[in-house]
Amino acid sequence: VAQFINADVRDLDQTQAMFDQIKTESGRLDVLVNNAGGAPPAEAATASPRFSASIINLNLLAPINLAQMANAIMQNQACGGSIINIASVSVIRPSPGTAAYGAAKAGMVNFSSSVAVEWAPKVRVNAVIAGLVRTEQAELHYGDEAGIEAVGRTIPLGRMAQPQDIGDACLFLASSLASYVSGSTVTVHGGGEAPAFLSASNANNE
Q1: 3-state secondary structure of 106
Q2: Under DSSP, is residue 93 helix (H, G, I), strand (E, B) or coil?
Q3: What domain count does the chain have?
Q4: For position 13, what pLDDT does the model report?
Q5: Closest by Cα among 125, 130, 108 to 56
Q6: Which structural domain, as residue segments, surrounds residue 56?
Q7: Which is it for strands 123-130 and 185-188: parallel, antiparallel or unpaired?
């Protein structure tokens, strides 16, 4: 049975209280998926220092703090635990309009591989690079259904990811099937994005 605990992941007191409640009520913590994040578009040339700091705080510092708290519990469990940090395709391609977000997510990938060494063998740490995901926010970014389908056609597998696609990758990393997987980055992006020069080439369109 799922249980929901309301907490602002940017608030250290709230997150510590959340982990204390989990430990008290469940007695253990097996998996942490650091999925909270996001960023509104903003030009890097004009974004305020306060805005950029807020993006870094939500997408890098908060997940680091949660991972530290989870690790403190998992290290004292016989079976350890698994930490999965959700990154973004912005890590591996330019991220115009969300440069601070892309930088923060790139930091999460490096953090994941670094602490996978520090926290082994008890705790496995991996990252998932999520491609374009069709959520309830998709229309805000890509317009109507036609716009979403047009974006999907730029992806080799022909569609944007569904949330379950990312969830399935997390289930694998959290399971015993991935017991020897740590410090890895699993890319779930449908094959990436087709290079623009392919569609621009006259020879390719003939």
Answers
A1: helix
A2: coil
A3: 1
A4: 98
A5: 108
A6: 26-37+51-188
A7: parallel
| pLDDT, mean of each 10-residue run, the chain (206 residues) | 91 98 96 95 96 98 98 98 97 94 98 99 98 83 85 92 96 98 97 80 59
Q: Give residue for tokens 């903003």.
A: 42
> Distance (Å, rounded) from C-alpha 183 to C-alpha 124?
7
Beta strands in the chain (DSSP E): 31-34, 81-88, 123-130, 185-188
Q: In 89-198, which ranges are E strands?
A: 123-130, 185-188
- Residue 78 CA to residue 142 CA, distance in Å, equals 46
Q: Which residues are catalytic?
A: 101
Burial class (CB in 10 A: 0-12, 13-18, 19+), 152: middle
173 lies in a domain? Answer: yes
The encoded tokens of residue 188 equal: 């779930």
